[in-house]
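User: Continuing from earlier, I have the next pair ready.

Assistant: Great, send them over.

User: Here they are, in order.

Assistant: Folding the first of the pair now:
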Amino acid sequence: MNAPLTIDDDFPAERELVIERMFDAPREKVYRAWTEPMLVKQWFAPLPWTTSGAALDVRPGGRNEIVMRDPDGKDYPSAGVLRQKTAARHYVMEHDNPNDFDRFARRSIASVQGY
């Protein structure tokens, strides 16, 4: 796997995609959905794919690996690092997907914020 990109890397603005979603749910439940492996496995992959594995170290600097499985049984691992965490209010996870060839497409950042 290539070296993971850092949160400070300079990415071209035209390659940035921001998706924002508000959930009508207690922030503690949303936080748990992102930080508990058994819950991550229930929702992370889009159907008909599944999440075959989730190992999460939810301490700042902690490593994680999430594995999505396609309908033919092929696994797609994605490694990440927890960048920031403030209880159940703020959680920033950076993922580096070794299956993407374009270094700008490989990196994704999920930021969960509670209000």
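And the other member of the pair:
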Amino acid sequence: MYLVYKTLTYNELIIYICGITIKCLACTQWFWGEECENACTCDDAKTSFCNKTNGFCSCVSGWKGENCTENVDECHDGGNKCGRNSTCNDTIGSYTCACDEGYQKNNNDSCKGQ
């Protein structure tokens, strides 16, 4: 078998091989599967993309889980996000850093004694 003719039309790739027509669909965003028959279950606002082959959700920063609906607690994920003399406060989808009492933020966002 060999490729005889190839054309690209919208989201559809049609390949003609030795008299046999093979049609490949490129699914639109938020759909997946062989015929794009499955809707992605990802939370659109918290997902960077849905895999068009298997429906896997790739979450944006601050979110996790099968459908990107679980908040990541950045303050307790093992890293020191805020640095010395400050406290990390988890927020929905992100976090903030607040200087400890007696300290204030300087120009490079670190907390220095007053």
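Worth noting for the second one:
The CA atoms of residues 43 and 76 lie 23 Å apart. DSSP finds no helices and 13 strands in the chain.
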